[in-house]
Amino acid sequence: MKTRKYVVVLFALLSSIGFIATAVQAEMVVTTNDGRVFRVPVKPNEVSKIEYSRGPQGRVEASVSSGGFSFVGCFTDRSQRDLKGYTFQSSSMTTDLCVSTCRDRGFSVAATQFSTHCFCDNSYGKYGQANNCNMSCSGARGEKCGGTWANSVYRVQ
Q1: DSSP label of 95
Q2: Closest to 52 in 3D by CA, of 63, 65, 40, 67
Q3: Of residues 87, 124, 96, the one with CA closest to residue 109
Q4: Eight-state DSSP code of residue 135
Q5: Which of the ends of the chain has fewer CB neighbours closer than 10 A, N or C?
Q6: 120 with 137: CB under 8 angstroms?
Q7: What is the pTM of this model?
Q8: Is the pLDDT score of 107 beyond 70?
Q9: How is the beta sheet containing 117-121 ordered, strand by strand?
């Protein structure tokens, strides 16, 4: 029964964001560690990134990005900010909100931090990598938006 539940949840997730279409030309195949196989129809070039994580009570959560950016990594920040071009804070922060704001302002790098902060610039990483980008985004609990003095950095495309 668990296999069926995951297929239904994944199908519902992809359907809700427009990835399941009548003119299917490709198929996403997910094979689990224990050999289960899930097949999901998609249109070519619509899926640019799929992430998964173990959520509350061990439930598997998936998030799909619609494209236009790529995750670079987790990087340390300090009071003399790593990304200084533009910053804002939102109680409904998401990766998409941060990336689209930075893109609209002409920047090539976007970073989320501490659940609610967004930073934009054209360079990043002067303080090195971090390993604590583990805070949920305030506007999308299934996404990670950096951590304490840690930036989840994205290359804007």
Answers
A1: H
A2: 63
A3: 124
A4: P
A5: N
A6: no
A7: 0.60
A8: yes
A9: 69-76, 150-156, 109-113, 117-121, 86-89
CA 145 to chain centre: 8
Bridge partners (DSSP) of residue 133 are: none
Burial class (CB in 10 A: 0-12, 13-18, 19+), 81: middle
Alpha carbon distance 17, 81 (integer Å): 35
Q: Which two tokens stand for residue 118?
A: 């967004």
- Quote the tokens at residue 15: 């359907």
What would the two tokens of residue 125 be? 């990483």
Task: Quote the tokens at residue 4.
Answer: 């069926």
Task: For residue 57, give the amino acid letter.
Answer: Q
The position carrying tokens 């920047």 is: 107
Distance between first and last Cα of the chain = 40
b vs e for 6-16, b when ≥16 Cβ sit within 10 Å of the residue's Cβ?
beeebeebbee
The CA distance from 120 to 91, in Å, is 18
Rounded-to-integer distance, Cα 137 and Cα 122, Å: 22
The 10s digit of each residue's pLDDT in 11-47 is: 444 445 444 444 445 566 666 667 776 666 665 555 6
